[in-house]
Design brief:
- The protein has a single domain, classed as Methyltransferase, Methionine Synthase (B12-binding Domains), Chain A, domain 1, CATH 1.10.1240.
- It is 76% helix and 0% strand.
- The protein has four helices and no strands.
- The N and C termini lie far apart (23 Å).
Length: 67
C-alpha cells in the first residue's frame, strides 16, 4: 500500500476546491481492495491535515454507498 505520508503530502497541496481530492479518492478505490481502502481511510482521518481528513471522508462515503 502506498506510503501514507506521501499521500498526505500530495493532498495537502490542494488549496482550493475538492476535485483533485475527489479524484484521488477514486484512484484509491480503483487501486486497492475495499478492506485496504477502508483501513487507509481510517489512517487518513486521524491526520491533522484537513485535506487528508476530507479524502478519508470521501472514501468513507463511497464505500458506504457500496454496502
Amino acid at each position: 500500500m502506498e506510503e501514507i505520508e506521501g499521500l498526505i503530502q500530495r493532498v495537502s497541496k490542494v488549496k482550493d476546491g475538492f476535485k483533485p481530492i475527489q479524484a484521488e479518492a477514486e484512484n484509491i478505490l480503483a487501486q486497492y481492495p475495499t478492506h485496504d481502502s477502508l483501513q487507509l481511510a481510517y489512517r487518513l482521518y486521524e491526520s491533522e491535515v484537513h485535506q487528508a481528513r476530507m479524502l478519508a471522508t470521501i472514501i468513507f462515503g463511497k464505500l458506504a454507498a457500496l454496502s
